[in-house]
């Protein structure tokens, strides 16, 4: 019975590492697992054998009233101690190796909010949300903090998890071998919509990453005059969205601090609202109609938008590549 | 409160530690109180050195000479407590009463000093809300003060019982020992607090 | 001090020894233990219902059975209830009922304090649960809800561990978290008072000859547990005071903006929380150490080692707390140190398991229901212990922590461990408690249903966790592929529920119609089996003198050359005589009199609690004052009331 086949195709599978950090953890896990499995078989086997062999039967004698056996007791104190010492060495080694700040790492700041992850690339002056784009095959150093309560950033295929602590900075190294989309989840209970605070890490090749960076550094695409998207931009500016949302080149004077997700390049992301919903017209419509109904406790209120306003907004948002 | 052995006038021989039940109970209780204050003191130590706190922080406002005097007063109250205990072993009931009263009054002077100190701090702009170090300071010293007040009540109760019953009997004598243990504990905690919170930079 | 001098009527002590009022005013450790037991069982049903609601919500992906608010309240209350209102008081039930019987005493050291502990616990639990009637909650400040939170969702909702700063008033608006922080203070006080009482009892009230290393292992585990309680409860008390002050009075303990530290909460909570888990499991380990020898007809293998291993676990338990914080951002040195200390605790734990196996080895095993549960404990606790060892491998824990893998681990040790041990004890001592035998058939049915249901429920959680299911999650997406195994888990939960119904049926029917048990139905080894079933109020007609470990066994059996037990000629007569003289003491036995004041104090504390929650209102302040006055007055009455012990002649 291999645990990794217990659930086929689980995208959050920590037993299916896709990068060197996760792989090192995985190696350590299997080492300990097999030792634990051996002990499991031994003990459960002993229980079954004892239960069968020594069950009370007709004509069974009263048992010898043995009080103990010093040699045996010392053995079963010493042997587990030795096994544990054996496990301790690679454990401690791995802690230090995986916590070492890697050279030439890309730095990404992860900021936790109720209920979405914000990603800031200080080297490039980029701020985005929900999707973290990284170059494949390159170490990434995450600096994590929270703006409100505790959160926990977990992308199982790439690394273990790390808390985001209010007022403090924590660190996590991760790396993806190959381009691909890696799923994540907030793993520390953070309030009403904890379950809907997800993460996506998209690894791309070097060229793709440079392209992405360049695109992110541009201000928002201007909609064509008179187009539905232009109407949507007007709606954006008048319906109250500007209290919280930034679209660079269009509106940056938000009153809400910290600001809500930056929408400048929203359409380039496949998911929204804490990476919990696909970014498509249907979900956007549902969201814009009543955000708290989709995400209990949402900081985005029901703006009482009518259908036309929503249609216009969607038209605009879909242009924000 | 009387315990089982006491209530039954225990005739049966039994195994034990050789310490009266209520005394043993008080020691266990004090051990748990030790952990209580340990957690409070550790918390204060954690916040003591933090940078960037909204001023004023406790360290800015201490009046060490003043607090030294009130610490000395509390220390002296432990001495009078011992004297009360001694007087009772000599069966000198009036002296016992006097020393009990003295202990309680010294305790009240200490509390008076604490109240004065806190109101000065508040006037100078440090409340529990000001910053984490202030919160830690007030919670620690506040709980300590509460313990002192409870001790004073117990001392005055013993004094009152001694007045009404014309002295403390054998049985009640143990109560004096128990209150004494509690009082010394409260004093020792203050010595730790004074050293760690006020004196050590 | 015995006095029958008349005082004012208020202080005259009650005298009833039967009927409803006798339970209200009792100071008898057995009655108190029984009340703890029934109350804890009631909360087991409530906590179990909460679990079933959770499992219905999680049976399939994207469930909508519970709202997010309701889910968060249910998982918080499930954990809080099971830890503080089920396992701890159930252990208290056993300790209260059994300890004086096992050590040859008539009661505990402080009978009224004992009663106080029970009433404080009961009313503290009621106070906590009154949140469903009165508590308020909502979106964090600045957030919005689509609908008002239902009554089902109006309960503490920040987890049983209540991590800051989520528990601060700007994130946990309303009063539910106040019910939590204050309710736990009250409930914790009950255990603290009890610990002082039971430590004194175990040290000072043992019968002649009952040296510490002749005590039953259950008594030893109780001693360790009560020390753990005395030293760990104050720490969570401090933490709860801090969050209460932050919420009520604006202090800054966990508010990062002004120097506060959310990680401080975790340290304080787990400094309590880790010893707490040993508090939860050691009594059950004590029960297992009583049951296995009796049904193997062999002494416990390595008694001293089992005792010292238990003490070692208790002691080391204070040195591992940050293993709950491996991902919190504590430094690498701390992670390494706590990883190592956690591995170390596996050693005394292993010793106990091997010694239990050694007890059964070469024994003559009778698979009664208590024996099945005891063996079940050994098997299930081993699994939980092994997953615990995998947690100590720190980098692996970075993947495991905060996932269902942890949920699997602690349910294997707390359910497969503590709860199985508790059921072993309930069946084992049922005849002593009631004087009747339970139905073996129903007992075995209960065991197998529960065993199967338990494993169906919690085994899949291991891989659910490793393959992405995080804890405390209201919902999981369909494309995580976590659905099928979650359905298995839910089915298992309902199988467990069924098994509990079987148990309840067995209990009710057997109490009425079970076969008469006699004083020693199991041919057991310890002192509680030398007195009538159910025990008379005074326990022992004459306090025994003890000459060895398992003294009763040695009075019934001697050993031949091969060290096999040979029943002494007078053994049957001895048992018959014990039964007879047990009911007919030859002189009056004085017992502590009942009292009103423990329940009076118990009732006043929640008033203080409500006063703190609602101190912003005038009537809240009034409640606070009234509550404090009531508490103080009750204490004064307590101190003043005369002793007036009740004499006992013939068993009435």
List the defining traits of the structure above.
heterotrimer; A: alpha+beta; Immunoglobulin-like; five-stranded mixed beta sheet; elongated; C: 652 residues; mainly alpha; Cytochrome C Oxidase, Chain A; two-stranded antiparallel sheet; 5 strands; 63% helix; globular
CATH architecture of chain B: Up-down Bundle
Largest sheet of chain C: 2 strands, antiparallel
Largest interface: A-C, 100 and 107 residues
Main sheet summary of chain B: none
CATH superfamily annotation of chain C: Cytochrome c oxidase-like, subunit I domain
Q: Kindly state the percentage of residues in helix of chain C.
A: 55-70%
Distance between the termini of chain C: 26 Å
Task: Report the β-strand fraction of chain C as a percent range.
Answer: under 5%
CATH homology group of chain B: Cytochrome c oxidase, subunit III, four-helix bundle
Q: Radius of gyration of chain C from the CA trace?
A: 25 Å
CATH topology annotation of chain C: Cytochrome C Oxidase, Chain A
Oligomer: heterotrimer
Give the count of helical stretches of chain B.
7
Order of helices and strands of chain C: HHHHHHEHHHHHHHHHHEEHEHHE
Describe the structure.
- The complex is a heterotrimer of chains A (321), B (201) and C (652).
- By secondary structure, chain A is of the alpha+beta class.
- Chain A is 35% helix and 19% strand.
- Among the domains of chain A are: 106-204, Immunoglobulin-like (Sandwich); 228-317, Sandwich (Immunoglobulin-like), CATH 2.60.40.
- In chain A, a hairpin with a 4-residue loop joins strand 11 and strand 12 (277-278).
- Chain B has one domain: Up-down Bundle (Four Helix Bundle (Hemerythrin (Met), subunit A)), CATH 1.20.120.
- Chain B has helices at residues 4-8, 21-48, 58-61, 64-89, 93-123, 132-164, 170-199; one strand at 14-15.
- Chain B is built from seven helices and one strand.
- Helix content of chain C is 63%, strand content 2%.
- Chain C is built from 19 helices and five strands.
- Chain C has helices spanning 20-24, 29-58, 68-103, 111-129, 131-134, 176-204, 217-249, 262-296, 303-316, 332-360, 369-392, 394-400, 404-434, 440-466, 483-513, 551-556, 571-583, 597-613, 618-640, and strands spanning 206-207, 557-559, 565-567, 589-591, 646-648.
- In chain C, helix 2 (29-58) packs parallel to helix 4 (111-129) and helix 13 packs antiparallel against helix 14 (440-466).
- The longest helix of chain C has 36 residues, at 68-103.
- Chains A and C meet through helix 1, helix 2, strand 9 and helix 6 of A and helix 3, helix 8, helix 9, helix 10 and helix 11 of C.
- Strand 1 (14-15) of chain B pairs antiparallel with strand 1 (206-207) of chain C, so a sheet runs across the interface.
